[in-house]
Design a protein that fits this description.
3 copies of one chain form a homotrimer. With 269 residues, chain A is α/β, with parallel strands linked by helices. Chain A has one domain: Ribokinase (UDP-N-acetylmuramoyl-L-alanine:D-glutamate ligase, 3-Layer(aba) Sandwich), CATH 3.40.1190. Chain A has 11 helices and 8 strands. Chain A has an 8-stranded mixed β-sheet, sandwiched between helices. In chain A, strand 1, helix 2 and strand 2 form a beta-alpha-beta unit. About 2% of the residues of chain A have low confidence. At the A-B interface, helix 2, strand 2, helix 3 and helix 10 of A face helix 2 and helix 10 of B.
Chain lengths: 269, 269, 269
C-alpha cells in the first residue's frame, strides 16, 4: 500500500471526525507527572480517558477499552503488574495498544520491563530517538526523557523494531518519523514549546491510542495522531507568552483543530 | 424541615462566607489524575487541602480534619488501606466525610471497596447516575467515569442509599440532585465544559467535604457546595476559548464567586 | 565570607544564566499533588526534570543527576525507600540534594523519615517555620502544610539545623530566611498568590536543587533560587485575575525572568 501525502492528509481529516463521533475509550497507564495533562488532552481531543492502572482492574478494562496507552515514566510496582496485564489483555482482545518506553536504556527497572512489553507486540511504539534505539536492543538509552540521538539516525532501528513487533514505530523529534518497517512517513509540524511542557510527548502516545481505535491502518492512524497533535501545538504557539500559556492554549486548540487547519498546515511527506 | 429555594440560596451565601472565614482543613484521598486540580480548587475556594493518603497517617489526620474526601478513581493498595482507616476515624470523631465511588459497578477491586465504604456510612455520597445506581446495589455500574444512566432515573436508588447510610446522596448531571432520603433538591447550574476537564466532578466531592465542615445540615451544605461550584463554572465558561482556558478561569472564579453571583444565578428547586 | 546584598544580586544574575546554559538534570522525588507543576517549573526555568522515584532506579539516577529534591508530601512506601536510596547515593557522589520535610511534626510516618533523611545531611533543607522547628527536634510540627509559626521565630532552630547538617536551611514565609548556621540572608520578594497554588512552595525546593548544581556556594545558590522564583511570582501576580491565571503566568514568568528583572526587584538583605 503506497500512500501519498495527500492521501494521508485526507485520512487525517476523516480520522479526526470519526474520533469525535466515536469518543473512543482510552485506558492510560501512565506516569504520575503527566496523568492529569494526558486526561485533559484526551477530553479536549474528543476521546474518553480512563486511568485504570491497578492489578486486576487493568486487565478487565483493557479488554473493553477502545485503545490502551502504556507509558513507563514512573513505573511503580502495582503499575508494572498492571502494564503486563493490560498489554496481554489488549493483545488477546485485539485492542490496539501503544507503548511509550520513557527513558529506558540505563535504568534498571524499566529497561527489562520495556523489553518484556515489546515482546508482547505493541500496536504502536512511540519514543524519542534514544528510547527507540534502546528498545530495539542496539543502544544505551537516553538521558532522562531527552533525546540525545538524532531522529533520522534512529530510522534503521525503528524499522527493525517495527518488523519485530509487527506494528508501527514512531520516533518523536523536530520532524517525527513513523514506520511499519517498510513504509516510512515524516510529519514536520509542531512547536519547540511542546518540549517545554511536561507531558508534551507522553500525551501524544495517548492520542495515538485514540486514533488507533478508529481505523485498522495503524501507520495512517499514527500519522493522523501526530499531525492533529502537532498542528494543535502550532495553533497554540502563535502569540504565546510562554510554556504556561502554551499548555492552556494547546488544550483549547486540541478541542477546536479541524479539517481546515489540517488541510492548511499538514506537513506530511 | 422544609426548605424553600430561597432559604437554600440564602444558606449558600452564608455557608460560603463561613467557609472562607473558617478555612476548613479538607483531607483528600483522591486519584492521581485529579489530585493537583482538586488541591487548587480547595485553595481557590478558601479551604486548606491536605492530601494525606498513606496508611497510619490517614487515620491520624482524619480525626483532626474538618472534612474528608474519599475518591475511588485510582485505588492503589496503600490508598485502599488509607481509605478504610480514614473513613473509620472520621466516623468515630464525627468528622463529615464524602465518598465518591468513581466507576464502580463492573471493576473488580473498587466495587467491593465501594460497598465496604458505603457500609461505614458516609456523610455524603457523590457520583453520576450509574455510580449511584451501582452503589445502591441495584445497577451494573458505569462506563469509566461517564454516566450512562439518567440523573432522574437514579432518584429512587439515591433515596434508598441515603436512607441506608443515614446521610445525603448527590447525583451529578446536567441538573444535580441531592437527597437525604426524604427531601430532594435540584440544582440546575453549571456548564458542559466541566465535563471536558478532568477532575471537574471529582473536585466537587472535595467542595462538599469543605462545606460539610461549616454546618451540620448536610442536605443544605451539599446543595451549597454544588451551587457555588457550578455557578463558578458558569462564570468561567463565559467567553471561554476551550477546556484549557476554562480550567484556569474556573479556579479564578472559585476564588471570586460571591453572594451576589449566588443571588443572581442560583437555580435551586 | 561576607556577602553584601549587591554581591548576592549579581550572583543571582550569573547563576540564572549558568543554569540556563547548563540545563541541570534535577531528579525530583516529590508528592503526587505537585509533581506535574514541579516538572513544569523546572522546564520553564531552564532545567531538565526527571521524576525518578522508585527503588533501584532512584539510587542509580541520583548518582548521575545534577541535583536531587526529596519532598515528603505524600510518602508512599516505594517512595520512602527511593528517598533513602537517593539521598545516600547523592551524598556519596557529591550531588547536592534538597530536603523538603512537608508537614512533619505530628504525622507518624513522615516524621521519623524526616529525621532519618536529616541525618543523611541534606545540602539544603527547605520548609515553613513549623516544619523547620519540627525537623530541628524542638517543635511539635505544623498544621498540614500551613506554617503556624513565624519565620523569624524559627531562626535559632534553622541555624542549629544548618550546623547539624553542615548545609543550608531555608525558611519560607512572607520574607524568606536562608542560613548556613553563621550567615543569614533574607529575601523579601514574592506574592501571596504563591500560597494559593498547590506546589507554590514545593516547586521552590526543586529550584533550589537546580541552582545548587551551578555553584558550590550553596548559601548563595539558595538565595538565588528564592530570588528568581519569587521575582517571577511578582511578575506573574501583576494584573492577575486569580490563582488559576497566576499559576499559568508564573510558569511563563519563570521562562522569561532575566537579569534586568533581578536587578530591579531583588530585595535581598
Amino acid at each position: 500500500m503506497t500512500r501519498t501525502p495527500e492521501d494521508l492528509t485526507a485520512f487525517t481529516q476523516t480520522a479526526l471526525k470519526r474520533l469525535r463521533a466515536d469518543v473512543p475509550l482510552v485506558q492510560c497507564i501512565t506516569n504520575s507527572v503527566v496523568v492529569g495533562f494526558t486526561a485533559n488532552t484526551m477530553l479536549a481531543l474528543g476521546a474518553s480517558p480512563a486511568m485504570v492502572d491497578i492489578p486486576r482492574e487493568a486487565s478487565a478494562f483493557a479488554g473493553v477499552a477502545s485503545g490502551v496507552l502504556i507509558n513507563l515514566g514512573t513505573p511503580h510496582e502495582e503499575q508494572r503488574a498492571a502494564m503486563i496485564e493490560a498489554a496481554t489483555a489488549a493483545g488477546s482482545a485485539g485492542v490496539p495498544w501503544v507503548l511509550d518506553p520513557v527513558a529506558i536504556g540505563a535504568m534498571p527497572v524499566r529497561t527489562p520491563l520495556g523489553y518484556q512489553l515489546r515482546d508482547l507486540r505493541p500496536t504502536v511504539v512511540r519514543g524519542n530517538a534514544s528510547e527507540i534505539i534502546a528498545l530495539s536492543g542496539d543502544g544505551t538509552g537516553g538521558r532522562g526523557v531527552d533525546a540525545t540521538d538524532d531522529v533520522e539516525s534512529a530510522l534503521p532501528m525503528a524499522q527493525a523494531l517495527a518488523t519485530q513487533t509487527g506494528g508501527v514505530v514512531a520516533v518523536s523529534g523536530p520532524v517525527d518519523l513513523v514506520t511499519d518497517g517498510t513504509s516510512t512517513v515524516r510529519v514536520a509540524n509542531g512547536s519547540p514549546l511542546l518540549t517545554r511542557v511536561t507531558g508534551g510527548g507522553c500525551a501524544l502516545g495517548a492520542a495515538m491510542a485514540a486514533f488507533a481505535a478508529v481505523d485498522r491502518d495503524r501507520l495512517a492512524t499514527t500519522v493522523a495522531a501526530i499531525a492533529v497533535y502537532t498542528i494543535a501545538a502550532e495553533l497554540a504557539a502563535e502569540g504565546c507568552a510562554g510554556p504556561g500559556s502554551f499548555a492552556v492554549r494547546f488544550i483549547d486548540a486540541l478541542s477546536t483543530v479541524d479539517g481546515d487547519a489540517i488541510a492548511q498546515r499538514a506537513a506530511i511527506s
